[in-house]
Write a structure and sequence with these properties.
Blueprint: H1 17-29, H2 37-40, H3 54-59
Amino acid sequence: MQSSGWDAPGAATDLPAEYVTWLDAVCAAAGCVFVPLDLLLEPYDGPSDRTPVWADRYFQWV
């Protein structure tokens, strides 16, 4: 599988629980949902010829 940068060294992994709680509250206040990186790195199995993980599916265009 091609690396997308989401799994690069230093990516947001093993965040402290306090930070995740704070981030979840900030996201909720903005009308968004915090999705942990490990879920975004799950393989994407939808129609695409170059999108290997969910993070790419939703954020590649950003």
